[in-house]
Design a protein that fits this description.
6% strand
Length: 67
């Protein structure tokens, strides 16, 4: 399963909030909720997040095998 814990760490380090993602960068509220719930998002969204945060994919998401 894909987890987005690295995203929240990266955002905290860069002092980027979900408010910033939504209103400055146009990431929808629904997408933020999906990320918070570790639900699937598109590769387009992951690409946008990497561009916004100037980071690599591993700084946004990680794969953890299902138990």
């Amino acid at each position: 399963m894909i987890h987005y814990a690295p995203l929240w760490k990266t955002m905290a380090e860069q002092k980027v909030t979900t408010y910033t993602l939504r209103f400055k960068h146009g990431i929808s509220h629904a997408t933020i909720q999906r990320l918070q719930a570790n639900q699937p998002v598109s590769t387009h969204t992951l690409n946008r997040l990497c561009g916004i945060l100037h980071c690599r994919l591993g700084d946004v998401a990680e794969y953890l095998p299902d138990e």
